[in-house]
Amino acid sequence: xDPLSAARAYGAAIKQAQTAAREAGSDTGSATGAxxxxxxxxxxxxxxxxxxxxxxxxEDMMVQQSQGKAELIDAVTAVSSxxxxxxxxxxIRDQVISAYQEIMRMSI
Length: 108
Known about the structure:
Layout: H1 3-24, H2 40-66, H3 72-105
Helix pairs in contact: 1-3, 2-3
């Protein structure tokens, strides 16, 4: 993946995290009323959880298809979705490692 794809994936993950935060916090609201950007760790954790869920869903769909309970196109679509989620997480990981290496090369 190229850096532009990683940036797009990161932006999409932030939007997803903000949407989830709005839905989860709609009852409580913030004390100051200002919106804050999500914590990077929480955003990454959410992306990993989403990837795990889509991977498990794809595995379940493949089992159902092998038992004749699901259509092949549904299994292929689930696997494709899981692959896209995994590529997004890998892209974010690669960019984090790249940023860490860049920081380590800086002189103090």
